[in-house]
Each structure stands twice: as structure tokens, then as C-alpha cells.
Amino acid sequence: MGEEALEPESNRADSTDKAPVPNISRSLWSTLRRFLLSISGVEGIVHSTGPHLPAQSKVKHLVEATTRSRGSLISPEQRRALESIMSGHIEAIIDLRDEKKKYDDPEVASAFFEERFKELWAATYEKYQEVGVSAPTSLDLLQATTPRELERPTSSVLYSSLLISTVGMCEVFLGQAMREYLTFRPQALHGTEIRFQFAEMQQFSSIESLKAYHIDRQVDSIIRQGGIDEWMKWFEVKVKLSFAEVSADPMAVREIFQRRHVHVHNDGEVSAIYLAKMADTKRQLPELDTYLRVDESYLLQAVDRLRTFGIALAVVLARKLTPKGSKDPGLKWLESHANDLVYGLLCANKYESAVEIVNLLIEDTSEQSVKTMMLVNRWIAQSRLGKEKAVRKEVRDWDTSALDAKFHLAQLTLLGETEQAHALAMAEIGRGALTEQNYREWPLFAPLREIYPPTVEQIASVELVPVQREESTADLLKDPPAADEGTTECHLDD
What we know:
Blueprint: H1 23-49, H2 58-69, H3 76-100, H4 106-131, H5 135-143, H6 147-151, H7 155-184, H8 198-201, H9 207-225, H10 228-239, H11 243-246, H12 250-265, H13 272-277, H14 296-320, H15 329-347, H16 351-361, H17 368-384, H18 388-396, H19 405-414, H20 418-430, H21 436-441, H22 446-451, H23 456-460, H24 473-477
Region (Disordered): 1-20, 471-494
């Protein structure tokens, strides 16, 4: 997902306040967008290198090599079935080894493992036979399979390295967020001790440069001496910003940082430190010295979780630094950008992330139009997650009589009133309040597009009636995406 995921112009907040964006909001957005661009780069690497990794799926490689060595001709369906069987077989062996560790007596443990392993071997052999491969090929597939193949495939080197880089990017983001806070609230430095040799003082041309140096030194000290828990404790003490305010699952974020730690310092194996840091989790913890895999699925989930964490932290931190009731246009601007990113997540089919961000931010969103659009985007995501019944109940009770026509259009679409929704959509296009590209790309209209595919002739036949719109502050202040920065595939032009 590109970090400049822009949503339809008709979805953005309208504001007539022309005040400039305060530095803190712009600075936090700049910090956030660099982080988002970096982790989007990680996603790009995964998606582009995956097809070229011979051992991206060790199972796929083993099935192909084994059947080829036997000269077995198998169909694509048979190959997929064999891959599924082999994956299940390896997973079962790993589970069996974990069960074996529960026995204190080595002889009892070995006897248990051997008996269950024979049963597993026989069952897997029968499954291979059912697919239609020969007996020799079935035996070769079994003999080619070891737990090590799945525990540490060649591709794990790449994914482990990318996890380390991703968490490092998040550390940089958190450190920069601390700098932004201390720069905006230098009084937070009061009471901190600073010592310089007289000769060192001469390198500073002003008090401001001295202050910047001191802030950098304070932040570097915090980052180097702590971990995610200590850093979030710093935000809680200094800003009254809790971990739960910026993540729906703080323990999952902690686990990502701890997994990165064991891959850097313990060859990827569970350490006593990992177990101590994760002691509060309700999830079942792995045994000491167990290898913690980083595969494509885990890495992409980690990127998604850290993305939502970063977006929420930037917005919540800006809110903490904005006086209540100030109607600060900069905060509205940043919240509008956050909703743009939610839209981008919808386009990228990242529905869980979209729901999480909205849940974290919607209650305290200052601009009502942005809050309403967040609500609509959450309903879209929840519908895609199979919660149509609950969504329709909420949407049915939603009073749109005093709202812009686009929200009534959203209501009709979410309720499945496709004929009425399509007619209203065409009318909105006709009066210039909705663009052709909005209709083609906004996930909200996916059900309409299935029934009423947007054709050039259809759109061209709509009589355009210019409508006067007052240009919004959000539109005026929004930085245009740079030409070399990737955007989400369904970004919309204004």
C-alpha cells in the first residue's frame, strides 16, 4: 500500500478556516509519511522478490524437485494437493516434537514420538496415494520432508532481515516523534541535567542549536537504553499517551519487537528475555530455544500492525499537543490525512487495519465531516469482513437527512439499495459532486459496479451541471504526492 493513499475529494473535510497548518501537525505528518513510505517499501520487496525465491515455499520446491526426479507427470491440481499434504505433514511433525518436550523421561518421550511418527507417516503416505502419484514418488516425498525445511527455509533469511529493518524503521519513527514533542514542548526538558566542557560550548552558534543538540542527546539516550515498553512508558509519563490509545493489541506490537530482538541477538530462538517480556500475554508462549519463524505472512502482518500503530500515534500525539476546543486547522488537516490512509487501506483490502485505525481515532476526531467519513469507511471494511448484518442495522438507524447527499448515497449503497444508489450516484456525477473516477474506484461502490459497470458511454451520457464548491482548507494545504513516491493503486485524482 502506498503511503499517499488519497481518498475521493468528496470524502474530505470541508473547512473555511484559512489559518496555516501549525508546525507540530506538519512535522508529525512529515515524520509519519517517511515511516509509512519505508514500510511500504518492505511490502514492495516482499511482493517483488517472492516469485523469484526458489525456496520462498520450500514445500513447493520439494514437490517440484521430487516429482521431476522421478519423471512423474502431474497436473497443476495434483501439485497443489501434494504441496498441501506436505505442508500439513511438516507442521504435524513440528507439533509432535513440541509435544515430545512435555515428557520429562527421555525414554518415554522417544517412545511417544516414534509411535506417533509411524502413524503420521502411514497417514501421509495414504494421502499421497489418493492424489494419484506412484508409490516410489510417495516415499520420495516423505523422505524429502524434514521439520527443518519448514522451520528455517532459505527465504527466512530474507524475511528475518526485513523484519529487523521494519522494526528499526519504527524505532526511528518513535525517536523522531519524541524529538517533535520535545521541540514543541521544550519545558519538558526542565530538570534534565546537561554538562559540557567549555571548549564544547563554542561549537554552538545559538541557544537554539544548543537546545536541538540536547534534545537529540536525550532522545538517543532513551532509544538506546530501552525497548518498546520503556518508550511507550516515556510517552505515557510525558504526554499522558497510553499504549492502548494507539494500538488495539499492544501485546502484539510488543511481540513484533521481541521477535526482532531474538533474531538479532539469539539466532531467532526463544530466549529467557523474550519469555519474560511476553509473560503478560494471554497467548500460549513457545518453549525456550524454539525457533521463531518469520515467513511472508508474519512479516506482512507485522508491517500492517506497525502501520496502524504509527498512524494512530501521530494523530493522538498531535491531539495531546493541541489545546482542547481550539478548533486547530492543523489537527483537522492531519486527521483528514489519517482518513485518506484509511481509504488507502480499503483499496488495498486491508480491512482489519482500516477498522482498527477508525476505532482508535474516530471518537476524538475534531471535524464532523471527517468523523462521518471514518464511520462510513469502517462500515465498508466491516462489511468486507463478513459483518454485513450488524453493519446494516447501524446504517439503517443512521439519520442522513441533514447530511450531504454523498452520505445518503453511502447509506443506500451499504443497505443494498443498488437501484436507488446507482440513480443517485449518476445524479451526483451530473452535478459535479462525484467524479467518474470516484465511482470507478471507491470501494463503497463495488456492489454497484458489479451490477452497473461504469462504461465510458454511460458516464459521458450524464449531463454535467457545474456545482459551486468552496475549496477546503484540507485541499489547499494537502501536499501533492511527489512524482517518485508510490501511491496506492486506487488513488483518486481531484
